[in-house]
Amino acid sequence: MRLWNGWGNENSELLMELNSGLRNLLQMLVGPATPLGEATLEQVMAKVPASRAPAHPLISTDPEIRVRHARGQSLPDWLAMHSGDVDSFPDAVALPENSEQVRELLRYARDNNIDVIPYGGGTSVVGHINPEISPRPILTIDMSTMNKLLHFDRESQLATFGAGTPGPEVEAQLQKEGYTLGHFPQSWELSTVGGWVASRSSGQQSLHYGRIENMFAGGSIETLAGTLDIPTIPASSAGPDIREMILGSEGRMGIITEVVVRVTKLPEKESFQVVFFPSWEVGLQAARELIQQRIALSMVRLSNPLETTSLLYMGAGDDSSGVVALETALAEKGIGAGKVMMTFGVTGSARHCDMAKEMALDHCTGLGGLADQVGLGDNWAHGRFRAPYLRDPLGSAGYAVDTMETAVDWSTLPQAVENIESAIRNGLADEDEQVHAYTHLSHVYGQGSSIYTTYLFRLGDSYRQAMERWHKLKAAGANQIVASGGTISHQHGVGRDHRDYLVAEKGELGLAAINSLCQLFDPESQMNPGKLLPDELN
């Protein structure tokens, strides 16, 4: 059973507790915190109003299912669920089993003037699935029962999935055939293939497998105007690409029901290696040169000095003696304060992996890097989906954690990182509150890289105060992203939280073009209103 107010399943082996070492570190970095009370499921259910949705055999108006579909996984969502301050719920939830039922639900919505929210895994961190306060009834269409491999073309390496298929099921069904999609976002356990397309997702090993736009070959989308079928063509010069119209559309044009993806054979070998560098500048040089020289890696992640230290001590738990020993050994070899940690992966045939790893290590050591010998790369792989589970134990101790991400060119990246971190770190200066912020690069390109900044702060005396603090920090970071010329979202989509910053990237004419597409498929703005586009276009 999914947690109703947090990340993951109730019995997940990845559930975390806040160890004393991390607690002590947080007290030192941002100060001691006071836990806040927590609303129960029953208390939130009591706030669910009577449904406004006309009866239909495919919908449920049960209060609990409406609560469980009321919010996603953003920090504001977490605060709302834990405080019980939830001001909007879907009037009904449907779980269609096939495309015909989706079409029937859309006819029902059109005929009864109902807003529709597509729901995949409920993992959105930017408000994609949150009901807007509306005079119209709201129907959430949960795609989780459309979760099967529908067709597999081994010769063309194409697999067709129901859009509600989550990451583990995608891989389990493909691996039975000896194949993989290779799309591993941090939300992989719960997020779905349709959600990946709708939000233009990026997996951790995108260097090898590509982003979702490279994998998405075609599929079916049910709209209020009819069914849109996108054929699977290897390449085409026949006008604008309809696939690109659907990628990142966030349910504004319709509901993705079937997704055809390009798959690859399971790799013979895969491994991950950690290398330490003496400084951020050298680490940046190494990351940039590795990708620009086209060394065939499957991922590169570079943590800045503050993240490097934070992660090492967070991972140590109650006993930091191993970290102290590692830092002593590194210092003896000239890698002391200011050190950064790079993790890279190799994926493919054994020969390919051995060669790529050797080339990468030769390049890194030539720049003064030192390869880890104690298996930190394996540790990263083992815990690669654990980070979202940290929010609940932190919150229970009175702390909040959130992230901001963008992508910029290499030439502007160092200053952008500094400016974004500084803006967030000083975002609560008017309250004399400390904010702990650190950054890593997780998706590198020849042109530039993503920037992923994590920040921690105290909730304060109330959930309302925590929300006010989040608004300050979000605005501070977002404004610096815009000022740096970066995208407002590299991998999480736009949703509700980023929509007002989109004009800086798309321009007024670009936004008008996107809006015109939405209006073509949805002239009454019933499909996921309030998301993707700024208020004036919703």
Give your account of this protein's structure:
The chain folds into 4 domains: 28-142, Uridine Diphospho-n-acetylenolpyruvylglucosamine Reductase, domain 2 (2-Layer Sandwich), CATH 3.30.43.10; 149-265, Uridine Diphospho-n-acetylenolpyruvylglucosamine Reductase, domain 3 (2-Layer Sandwich); 269-384, Alpha-Beta Plaits, CATH 3.30.70.3450; 499-537. The strands form 4 sheets. The protein has a 7-stranded antiparallel sheet, with helices on both faces. It has helices at 20-30, 41-45, 63-68, 75-83, 99-111, 167-175, 193-199, 206-209, 212-215, 242-246, 280-292, 305-316, 321-332, 350-366, 376-382, 391-396, 413-425, 463-483, 503-521; strands at 59-60, 92-94, 115-119, 138-142, 149-153, 158-162, 179-180, 216-223, 226-230, 255-262, 264-265, 269-277, 299-303, 340-348, 370-371, 399-409, 436-441, 448-458. The protein has 538 residues and is α+β, with helices and mostly antiparallel strands. A hairpin with a 6-residue loop joins strand 17 (436-441) and strand 18. It starts with 19 loop residues before the first helix and ends in a 17-residue tail after the last helix. It is globular.
Walk across the major sheet and give the strand order: 15-12-14-13-17-18-16
Q: Into how many domains do the coordinates divide?
A: 4
Structural class from helices and strands? alpha+beta
Provide the gyration radius in Å.
Answer: 23 Å
Counting DSSP H or I runs of 4 or more residues, the number of helices is 19
Biggest sheet statistics: 7 strands, antiparallel
Shape: globular
Spans of 5+ residues with little confidence (pLDDT < 50)? none
CATH architecture of the largest domain: 2-Layer Sandwich
From the N-terminal CA to the C-terminal CA, the straight-line distance is 35 Å
| Percentage beta strand | 15-25%
DSSP helix fraction: 25-40%
Q: What is the C-level CATH assignment of the largest domain?
A: Alpha Beta
- The count of β-strands is 18
> Remind me, CATH topology of the largest domain?
Uridine Diphospho-n-acetylenolpyruvylglucosamine Reductase, domain 3
What is the chains' assembly state? single chain
Mean pLDDT: 96
